[in-house]
Design goal:
heterodimer, A: mainly alpha, 15 helices, B: 147 residues, mainly alpha, elongated
Chain lengths: 359, 147
């Protein structure tokens, strides 16, 4: 099995669990996540476990290397540094496992949990969070575009706006004091929980009349709904409102290092009237562009530490593959409740730490 | 001027996917693969100690507790593309893979521009070029804080 197949996402439809998701589309988000994040489930479990062991071994053996390096002021802990990247790898693996059945992106779990319970500065956690979300979106992109579930017509105009604002968000996040960002992150995470609990969704919104800008940009298309087998012709509405919303979504994505699928999907589906599957697919495509811009700002400002980013990306992607396999076995609703509880806990902790309460 | 993102296929089967989407997907698959591969290889180089890191492993706990700007200052790095001068360091070389991953959408965006232009869809050609310009601006290091 090549690394390309390991990373790419266009072979998931061959999976029995993904096929069963198509037949039972009630949990649409999970179904799409199966196609998107689970991606590329091919080859043996042994190979995947071997890859995990290699990462473990690399982190562990690197403790033996001690070449010349810059000197930093010592403050307490210097021994067993490798415990934290290893723990990060394990945590990200499990976050990846639960993210798929819960129908959320890994980034939204990663940033609040890792910033709350690991000793890493928030700057590095947000940088890694963006890269985690970016990697997942890039892996899913090809198959979403080929299937028509992601639409460039709808995604590109919104991505341009959101990419610009994500750079501003990234700069804001890096410029503001960590305590302020923690408070804002806590409030945002609690807001995301509210969106997850309350936001309605419409599988096939009825758009009677498209707006002038939407017509100019030809924001319409067609896809085959695998569940019903019928062709769905779609078009959008309220394009200017959508553009303004994505302006704010970009700021949030860049500022907190969150994949912003939680906001993209309702904006595309409820506000702009895109079918839910197109909204979810196009959201992932938009993320691949928006997070790229913000990731460069973090990179250029020194907020990417490889020892945090690499185990996070690999752990999350391996976990997502296992999660997609477990999709047919696990109760998605139960996992979703677990994720909401985790977010409530992590968001609340972020808020309290930011306010200096109970730290 | 044909502008829709995917016209329905004849006979009610799978709709034809717009050629620009198919080209974008093909290019993204390759560039994403290169990005992930370079990330993994660079991390192996780093973790095995094949190249000496800028920040030694036992000093990482000090580094990762600092704000990014302070960490840059203490390690003698400069913001922007200053890291390129330190590519002989195991940890810094990882930034090449990460940078490639963060740039791998640019090539697919450029690859679809001729399709839009051939069809006379100048608006989307310009939007794709704008997106590339935003990526270049982000990558250029112009957008950064004064540390």
């Amino acid at each position: 099995m090549t690394l390309q197949r390991w990373c790419a996402s266009d072979i998931s439809p061959a999976l029995p669990e993904c096929r069963s998701q198509r037949q039972s589309p009630t949990d649409l988000r999970s179904s799409l996540t199966c196609r998107v994040q689970g991606a590329a489930i091919d080859g043996t479990l042994a190979l995947r476990l071997a890859a995990a062991l290699v990462v473990f071994a690399l982190i562990a053996t690197s403790a033996l290397a001690a070449p010349e390096a810059v000197s930093l002021p010592t403050q307490g802990e210097t021994k067993a540094w490798w415990v934290w990247p290893l723990a990060l790898f394990v945590v990200c693996f499990f976050l990846g496992v639960v993210a798929v059945p819960a129908g959320v992106g890994g980034g939204v779990l990663f940033v609040p949990l890792v910033s709350g319970f690991f000793p890493f500065h928030l700057d590095f956690v947000r940088g890694a969070g963006l890269l985690v979300a970016l990697s997942s979106a890039l892996a899913a992109g090809p198959s979403l575009l080929r299937s028509g579930l992601a639409s460039m017509r709808i995604a590109v105009p919104l991505a341009v706006i959101a990419s610009l604002s994500s750079m501003l968000g990234a700069l804001l996040g890096l410029a503001l004091p960590a305590s302020v960002v923690r408070v804002a992150l806590g409030v945002t995470i609690l807001g995301i929980v509210a969106v997850m609990l309350k936001a309605g969704r419409s599988e096939f919104p009825e758009v009677k009349l498209t707006d002038r800008l939407g017509a100019l940009l030809a924001m319409h298309g067609v896809f085959v709904d695998a569940a019903s087998g019928r062709e769905v012709h779609w078009r959008t509405r309220r394009t200017p409102v959508g553009l303004v919303m994505f302006l704010f979504i970009g700021v949030l994505a860049g500022m907190f290092g969150l994949g912003a699928g939680w906001a993209n999907v309702p904006a595309l589906n409820i506000v702009m009237g895109a079918p839910l599957k197109v909204a979810a697919g196009s959201s992932s495509f938009i993320l691949s562009l928006v997070d790229s811009s913000a990731a460069w700002v973090y990179l250029n400002n020194g907020a990417v530490l490889p020892v945090i980013a690499a185990p996070s990306i690999v752990g999350m992607m391996l976990g997502a593959k296992i999660g997609a396999r477990l999709l047919a076995v696990l109760k998605a609703a139960l996992i979703r409740r677990l994720v909401i509880a985790l977010l409530l806990f992590a968001g609340g902790r972020s808020l309290l730490v930011g306010l200096g309460i109970g730290t | 001027m044909k502008r829709n993102g995917g016209a329905a296929g004849k006979g009610g089967g799978r709709p034809d996917i717009a050629p620009e989407q198919l080209r974008y997907a093909a290019w993204l698959q390759w560039s994403g693969w290169i990005g992930m591969t370079s990330l993994v290889i660079a991390f192996i180089v780093y973790a095995t100690g094949a190249l000496a890191p800028l920040i030694s492993f036992d000093q990482l706990p000090q580094a990762w507790r600092l704000p990014a700007g302070e960490m840059l200052q203490l390690t003698g790095q400069s913001p922007g593309w200053g890291w390129v001068r330190l590519l002989d360091r195991g940890d810094v070389i990882n930034l090449v893979g990460i940078g490639f991953l963060a740039s791998c959408s640019a090539a697919p965006l450029l690859a679809v521009v001729p399709i839009y232009l051939k069809r006379g869809d100048r608006v989307f050609a310009i939007l794709c070029l704008l997106q590339v310009a935003v990526l270049i601006m982000a990558a250029s290091g112009i957008v950064r804080l004064g540390h």
